[in-house]
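User: What would this chain look like folded?
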Amino acid sequence: MGMVQDQTTEGKTLHEEGVQRDPQASPKTSPSGLGLMVEVTNLAWNLVIPIVGGVLLGHYLDRRTGEDVTWTLSLLVLGVLIAFMNLYELNVEHRHQPDEGEKDHTDIHRVSDEEK
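Assistant: Here's the prediction, encoded as structure tokens.
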């Protein structure tokens, strides 16, 4: 039935107090190396592409139109704004996704008198 008998709480075993482990609770696991690499790569692409893309497109447009650095600076600022918007969206998305180990902060639940 999953009763824990070897852990004690102030001289009483958890079995005597009516404590049972939650079978669905998993220990908190750290992200795997590959998963962490994917998250970092996703973050980097969401920050780098708008900024570098804006600079490259701005430089191309400055050369085509004969301007000095007007397009480059304008598209650099636009790329930075887009990068921060992407960063904010990733932050909001990450906050709403519970981690495997954080779905239930407690893995021990009290068993009511009726369940004993």
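The beta strands are 8-9, 12-13, 19-21, 108-110. If you want, I can go into more detail on any region.
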